[in-house]
Design brief:
The complex is a heterodimer of chains A (480) and B (449).
Chain A lengths: L27 H5 L16 H13 L21 H8 L14 H18 L3 E3 L5 H18 L8 E5 L5 H8 L3 E5 L9 H7 L4 E6 L12 H10 L3 E6 L11 H4 L3 E4 L19 E3 L11 E5 L2 E5 L16 H39 L3 E2 L9 E4 L6 H10 L6 E2 L9 E3 L7 H20 L2 H5 L11 H6 L11
Helix pairs in contact in A: 3-10, 4-10, 5-6, 10-12
Chain B lengths: L7 H11 L28 H12 L8 E2 L12 H6 L2 H4 L11 H18 L3 E2 L6 H16 L3 E5 L4 H11 L5 E5 L16 E8 L9 H10 L3 E6 L17 E5 L15 E5 L12 E5 L5 E5 L6 H4 L12 H39 L3 E2 L8 E5 L4 H10 L3 E2 L1 E2 L9 E5 L6 H13 L13
Parallel strand pairs in B: 1-13, 3-4, 3-5, 5-6, 6-7
Antiparallel strand pairs in B: 2-8, 7-8, 9-10, 11-12, 12-15, 14-15
Classes of the chains: A alpha/beta (480), B alpha/beta (449).
Amino acid sequence: MSDFPLVFERGMPGRRAARPPVTEGAGMAELLGEDALRAHPPRLPEVSELDLVRHYTQLAHRQFSIDGNFYPLGSCTMKYNPKLHEDAADRFLDLHPYQDPDHAQGILALLHGLQGDLATITGMDAISLQPAAGAHGELTGILMIRAFHEANGEGEQRRVVICPDGAHGTNPATASMAGYDVVEVPTGPDGEVDFAAFEAALGPDTAAVMLTNPNTLGIFERRILRMSAAAHAVGAQLYYDGANLNAVVGRARPGDMGFDVVHLNLHKTFTTPHGGGGPGTGPVGVKAHLAPFLPAPLVAREGDRFVLDTDRPRSIGRMRSFYGNVGNLVRAYAYIRTLGAEGLRRVSSMAVLNANYLRVRMKEAGFTIAFDRVNMHEFVAQPPAGLRTLDIAKALLDHGVHPMTVYFPLIVKEAMMVEPTETESLETLDAYAAILAEVLERAQADPGYLAEAPRSTPVRRLDETTAARKPVLRYGFTAG
Amino acid sequence: MPYVPHTDDDVRRALAAIGVDRVDDLFADVPAEILDPPLDLPAPMDEVTLLAHLDALAARDQQAVPTFLGGGVRRHFIPAVTPRLALQGEFVTAYTPYQAEVSQGVLQSTFEFQTMMSELTGLPNSNASMYDGASAVAEAALLAVRQTHRETVMVSRAVHPETREVLQTYLWPLDIDVEVVDLEPSLTTPVPGVGDHVAALIVQDPNHLGYLEDMPAMAAAAHAAGALLIAVVDPLALAVLREPGSYGADIAVGDGQVLGVPMQFGGPAFGFMVVTDALLRQLPGRLVGQTTDVDGRRAFVLTLQAREQHIRRSKAKSNICSNHQLAALLATVNMAALGPTGLREMAEATVRRAHRLAAALRGAGADVAPNERFFAEFVLRTRAEGATVRRRLAKRGVRAGVPVPPEYGIGNAVTLAATELTTDADIEALLAALHDVGELGVVGTEVVA
């Protein structure tokens, strides 16, 4: 079978798909000086419009998506992305970030409304919409905590960020980027943070505690109020990683749990599209004592007018240019305003119902559940002894469904982290469980079955070792 | 209920299978005192009502009028085919391509993106994109600090002010100093004396005010001190301007909005970072590499993940965990649609339109800064404060005038940008509006609101 062509391998010199408006006039050398110009043009594709359409349509067909089939990646909240939101975002495409704010009152009103909605939903006092992704929101939040401690004269003293051993990798990486040392605390036998170890880790050097609740096992930290009290008792700030908010949105608020800072992943709970890996959007909410440190600018209201408030002398500064991923903020606003409070409660209720249902079905299919108890929006399973999670994941691809998140959290061997979300029907979950059962059955009957999977995908298992050892990161323009 | 498919029977069936009586039993682990707080949110809207509400908001925003705003975001031609192809549901609703066998659409298009960014910048190794240009500059500075083990970066004042603010935010917690290089009267950066304590020199070309910098001299000055040159570039301009690889830049970074992403009030677009081979293993963010599958077919996969947070945790090069894939895909499809000829024509038309605008303003007596080496934008000195001029022009139906901040020491001024979409009628509208607001012609003849 021949290789699927790159766009560079299609077309012919002299072809092109699109023609911009052309302006004739003086040459570039005359206008800018010969020394300013490049010697050779970039080698870009030269394809007709139909070549182009076929290429990217065929590539789309080589891509798994939520629109295509069930995509239960744990911690990723792969829920349906409503088409309505695309129409909503289209209404604000031609806005320039530097246009006169008095002539951008519509979008500023929307952003102000979203700040308020997210503050209500999280139980926080103020929101910045600026961060471009969850990890970016984490950095924003931890930098605010650092600025807070420095403002209190405790910057030198507080050097440590505490994370559970099940934390998302971004948590310790963020703490490092903010100049902190990381201390991990273990998970106890009930799947929750070991409270004694947690208490022992807290001290006068603790700057922050970063928690996800429910945690990455999909289990709600029942001792959360005691944990936040203990953290605050030593002067630490409590950071809420909002990756798992879909479990409790509308029904429980990080602010009420005692958190001082929260980031939200709008591409998870608030269903802005994942886009193949981004753009995400990671707004940050804080309690009042941290509000002075929020990045500038915020959208503020002055009477009937909305303004960009840049006069924030204690702010940590900017995290990115302009005001945030506004296109996605419009989508999240559309979602919240379509659902309302009751709709959001329904979201978390049905997300948790679906996850528990699928947990039971997977157990029936022969999988082990790590920390088997009622879970929230996701759970972690393990394959029967002797089988590898990776192989089962590859076998699922042959059945046209997507695997769960694999090998995370790190604290569960052969982890399979499953998050079905509320937008899936029970029939879809039943079908997934049936496929999983079939895969186990065939694997036990034929030892070669899993090793050969996948068979029917656009490409089969890849040589990742060579890819990393001899990286080829661009086309060489040598092939026919 | 929107988007939730469960019927009452479904809920009963699921509860029975789980072995609990009520959905609320599944929330028993949440402390009762924090469960179900009242939420004061607006009542839900149906589709028609929502869109009408958004239309009413959008009607308060100035869109689709003559536009001369730049400062990092510009309105450029985006052929209809670009969003139609890039925003197909398969691309929009995919996640990070961890399962490569079913993710060749995202992976291959990213490999194509990396190749195109490498071609534009003349450097070999592009990542899969970053959040935006400003945070990409900050990440590039962190890369330089890791590579050189030095703890100071030098940055030209003509690098976008917001980019410098982001740089400060990222570098502050790590105690890395930022030295700022002031500008010449030509509004360009003098070749600075770079000390051997400096990790990187950061220069933007064209700079924030629109003017071209002497990048080969910047590279020489940086390298003489053992520092890296970080070139902050406009990727559309690179269709005609010399590419960073040709003058020895170590890192090219910038914002890709001009390559086919709608303005969207400033986001999302994408940042990019392209580096030399010597810096490859310090490069943050996702990378797609070519390999083969078990049948020997060419295929693409995320690679060199040992740099990344999900493997290295607190030892990672950066906490970055996503990229701006869909915006980068828009740029990929757009560059493929335009090809080398179309992209060059756009860049050339931008230069010609900007120079035509400057000439028209001068002809009308405006105080255009005397530097002729600009790509898409340039400085106009104004009588009123920049923001005031912008507001007055907006009232007359023209979006123009990014205020030049006081730090540049040139008094009241704005930058004006043109692109290939700027028409002669747009230029006439701007001139008329400038005249109306008292920025052209005899001073002090009228009071303008």
